[in-house]
Amino acid sequence: MKKGRKSYDLGGSVELGAVNAGFEADEDARKAAEAAAAANANGVHKEVAVGEVQGDEPERQQWSSPVEFLMSCIAMSVGLGNIWRFPFTAYENGGGAFLIPYIIVLLVIGKPLYYLEMALGQFTSFGCVKVWNMMPALKGMGYGQVYATGLVLTYYCSLMALTVFYLYSSFAATLPWAACDDAWTDGAACLNSSATAQQQNISGTTPSAELYFYKFVLNEPKDIFDGVGAPDWRLSVCLLISWVAILLVIIRGVRSSGKAAYFLALFPYVVLVILLIRGCTLPGAAQGIIYFINPQWDKLLEPMVWYAAVSQAFFSLSVCFGTLIVYSSYNDFNHNVHRDAVIVTSMDTLTSLLAGCTIFAILGNLAHELDKGVDEVVKGGAGLAFVSYPDAIAKFDWVPQLFSVLFFLMLFTLGIGSAVALAGAVITIICDQFPSFRYSYVATAVCTVGFLVGLVYVTPGGQYVLSLVDYYAVTFTVFILACIEMMAVAWIYGVDNLCEDIEFMLGFRVSAYWRLCWGIITPVLLVVILLYSLVRLEPLLYNKVEFPMGAYSAGWILLAVGILTVPAGLILQMSREVRARRDAAVARGAEPEALPWLPVSGRFWSFWGSVVAASFRPNALWRPKAHKHFKEWVEFKEARARAAARANEPRWIRYLRRFTGLPFPGPV
């Protein structure tokens, strides 16, 4: 080994400075950092050039307290999906029996991914793009996550706009959807939502709450073959209010969003408890709750139930969107993210159960009032929040406006908590790439662009567009990127390296549960579920209506854009590696060799194989950001490498350790 270079185990035998030119630059930066630290220790101020590593902690915002981080994660993970997606998904997939696959999936996929992303962000203090200094070839995956996050953010805010509209309408002397109005019934047979079964019972009619939502609020067409229409000015104003609220929370980064997190995380629970207490006092509430939790055991044998459990756990926790990595990057290096990951994932599950009982208690009352079965009054997705629940509230005989205000204010608060995390992820990526940009300016620009893009979702055909974007550009994109992320970390960087990094950061060994999940269970299950979903793939429908062929094509194009960021990032990194080698040859005074473009010789495979391998090795910036932690980490990894060398283990044991992260039994 050349003098001045250190070696330590990073997914195999990696020599700092060998092959990857980035390590050579890191050696110079480290020397400059040591010189700067020595000068600062002697009371001498020394300027360090751009690109060098400061001897002290790099300037970066941090949470004011660990509780702020915990509250922010709860506000992010507990969102609109817990209120209207989980109850309907559970009801549709076996009721109480659905909890069994859901909890199993949460334990082997949801929790491991949550902890993994928290640990990665905190270790490097970078967002979801630069965290892939671990494997520069996969930086494109970080951009793919930002792409999906940006799309989610734009349509998520359009749902918040609907909650603002209903919140404003709830202050009326009489709830506007409680009675039919010829202005928006459009000749349809309408039944007043305030009416009970004893007061009015006409078959073949539609509740006024449903007509109010689709005909008056959305003004939704039967299809979008003639286009989606122009943005509705009322919903556009509500959308603007939503984006202004988000901007006010994130304008100063985690310094402002951290303070707001206490309210955003706790207020929804206050409202949920109030609504649950009120719901349980209503006639028929017990019938609704029993219907929600009553297990249908035969459903456990259906693969689609397990797929639904994975989808719910996956997207409820907001994993693989980059938000967790960003939030944890603002932590202190030694913060106990293991504890926070367990708390937040458990809280998310309990919140879903609480919301399910609350919603179905009130829907049970609705079924009782209409003298119908619970299954006849339940609607999925946004219909649960904007049709079924308003329909039930309209029948309250005691201040229905109060409970309507509380419900939609709770929804808006939940939406803000999740949207702030999504917007923060996008802003952090931009600020990481361009450190000279002011955070407040970037935040304003992101919110402005998000509002303009979001106008397409407040058109009459906006819900069609939302379904299309969510299905193709978000769900599939994030799921595919999650598979790549998990396999890359577990099988290329190595679970052994990951566990050592976490052990150094937190001060205790990673348990066998996390190692086995990261090394085998989670990546294998993700791939199996992805393949199953592709086999069962069917054309998307909205309210049983097909999309135009052009819309399906647009959906596949959106999906392709998100996925192609991965191979594009690989090609870009390989070109950088080749250029670095040629520059190194010129620096040595040698003539750069011609690149072997055709696979007609052994040199082609050896050259490009080494380029690919180097592109997947950690670069100079995969390290703790603080110089003190960096030096200690290098010493820690060297000690582990020496212990492994002394053990002289068989190759199969070394591979087993790589895939499972089993601890080294000897002294270190």
3D architecture notes:
With 668 residues, this protein is mainly α. The protein has 22 helices and six strands. It has helices at residues 21-41, 66-77, 80-92, 99-124, 139-169, 182-185, 208-217, 233-250, 254-280, 285-293, 303-316, 323-329, 337-370, 382-393, 400-433, 439-454, 462-506, 512-535, 549-587, 602-615, 627-647, 651-660, and strands at 7-9, 13-15, 190-191, 206-207, 541-542, 545-546. The chain has a two-stranded antiparallel ribbon with strand order 1-2. A hairpin with a 2-residue loop joins strand 5 (541-542) and strand 6. Helix 12 (323-329) packs across helix 15. The longest helix is centred in the last third of the chain and has 45 residues, at 462-506. Unusual broad substrate spectrum amino acid:sodium cotransporter that promotes absorption of the D isomers of essential amino acids. Neutral amino acids are the preferred substrates, especially methionine and phenylalanine. The chain crosses the membrane at residues 69-86, 98-116, 146-168, 233-251, 263-293, 305-330, 342-363, 405-427, 439-459, 471-493, 513-534, 554-572.
- Helical content stands at 55-70%
Biggest sheet, in brief? Answer: 2 strands, antiparallel
Q: Identify the strand order in the major beta sheet.
A: 1-2
Q: Assess the beta-strand content as a share of residues.
A: under 5%
Listing every helix as H and every strand as E from the N terminus to the C terminus, the arrangement reads EEHHHHHHEEHHHHHHHHHHHHEEHHHH
Spans of at least 5 consecutive residues with low confidence: 1-58
Q: Mean pLDDT score, rounded?
A: 82
Distance between the termini: 22 Å
Number of helices: 22
Computed Rg: 27 Å
Number of strands: 6
Oligomer: single chain
What overall form do the CA principal axes indicate? globular
Backbone structural class: mainly alpha
